[in-house]
Amino acid sequence: MEGHSPTVTDATVQAGDGPAPVQADIRSHAIQHDQGITAVPEREPSPGRRITPRPTFLENLANTRESQFMFDRQNSSELDRYFHGPRDLDKHSKWPIFLRMHGSVLPKMILPLGFVAAWSTLITLISRFVHNLGINNILLTVTGFVVGLALSFRSSTAYERWADGRKYWSLLIQTSRNLARTIWINTAEREGELGKEDLLGKLTAMNLILAFAVALKHKLRFEPDIAYDDLAGLVGYLDTFAKDAHDRDRLQPQKKTLWKSTGEYLGVSFAESNPRKLVKRSKKPLGHLPLEILNHLSAYVDRCIANETLTVSLHQAQAINGLASLNEVVTGTERVLDTPLPTAYSISIAQIAWIYVMALPFQLYSSLTWVTIPGSIVAAYIILGLATIGSEIENPFGQDVNDLPLDTYCRQIALELDIITATPPPNVKEFTVRDENLVLYPLSMDGYNEWKTRSIDDIRAALRTKVVANSPAAMGSDDSTVIGSVRSKQSV
């Protein structure tokens, strides 16, 4: 969280040597107070405590939420941060929306528009100096209607998939909040050493809730490993297929050439890589990490029920239903990811759009002559731009600017879990009896203890007066007069 700056003292691994042995807990923690930050000294390993080597995927861990979810992106170029995600929702642009390039498909339209400009120029020159190739523009009306239907279908289906992806991630955030509250507030902590185990078990479960969201994000982006900065520290201790299949070389993609990077920015299909290439390169079973995390969460809930720290049947049902909702999120997002628009539709819509654009100069020349060239470019930008937008948002879980900001959602869950776990479960007897608890605010500024000395009839009479004071007829009266009348009435 912000305000915390834990110092990472992981042992440095020398080249050619295995991971250096490290202490089981060597991170220093910072406790923020009103007047500063006090560092808690590192604990010395107790005699006899076993020292184990740190796995290779735990060598470099994030030490802040910003670095955990790659919002700093220090190794990225300005061009990459501008045209690629994850999108930072906190940034604000004052440019008029029609002049913004961040999120625009214009870079991907440069080559198609250049081709249309060359094509319309060729047709115009031939028609002007060789032979008139102009035809009746009645085709604009006939074929334009078909193109409009095709683009409308393409845009609506793509946006529907984008909206479904957002709905499932909203359900994930909602379920994470409910499940975290059930675990932290409604699960009891026993006395003594058992209570310490219960507290650490709660924290483990909270980390698993966050790990589920992060693991789902990576799975939807076809990133099958666990050694990512935002995931390794959360699930590195679990026995999972992804852990067994860990391959450090797979985490270090080959450096892109200038031609490949330029081709990706311009939307050249030959420059695009297969998004599933990392999955296909794996030589071991990758398993299903989000599902495996759910198995561990389910085991934790069963343990809480067995040791009678989660005894209320309603809370037990809430926890189990929360796990079922998380499983629904996995299934729904996989449905969105794995069922794009059928290929026949995609090919046909692309062909219809290009046929219409290629035929435009023939239909426009008789009426526009030299204006045919800019007219064709403008029409092509409108038609091909809508088709390109539909193609880009069809998969809402990728790294494009217009895709869903999954890193932001995961960071939101992480910060909210930090807020929940920052304080012990609230004690009702403690916070209700405070003098600052203005139980009849804004009618009366007296606190809980002041009203506790009065009778039930006085409290109910004040509640009735509160309704009268808030009526439209009393809205123009002086608040101090209303409060004073209540106090005088109670003193009689």
UniProtKB/TrEMBL annotation:
Q: Key word Lyase present in the record?
A: no
Tell me the keywords, alphabetical order: Cell membrane, Ion transport, Membrane, Transmembrane, Transmembrane helix, Transport
Q: Determine if Transmembrane helix is one of this entry's keywords.
A: yes
Against InterPro entries, the record matches this protein to: YneE/VCCN1/2-like (IPR044669)
Give the transmembrane region(s).
109-127, 133-153, 344-362, 368-389
**What is a single molecular function from GO for this protein?**
chloride channel activity
Record-linked Pfam families? Bestrophin_2
Q: Where does the record locate the signal sequence feature?
A: none
Start-end of Polar residues biased regions: 1-12, 478-492
Q: What is its main location?
A: membrane
Coiled-coil ranges from the UniProt annotation? none
Gene Ontology terms, cellular component aspect?
A: plasma membrane
- Which top-level group of life is the source organism from? Eukaryota
Sequence segments annotated as region (Disordered): 1-20, 473-492
Membrane association type: Multi-pass membrane protein
Q: Where in the cell is it found?
A: Cell membrane
Protein's recorded name: Bestrophin, RFP-TM, chloride channel-domain-containing protein
Taxonomic placement: Eukaryota, Fungi, Dikarya, Ascomycota, Pezizomycotina
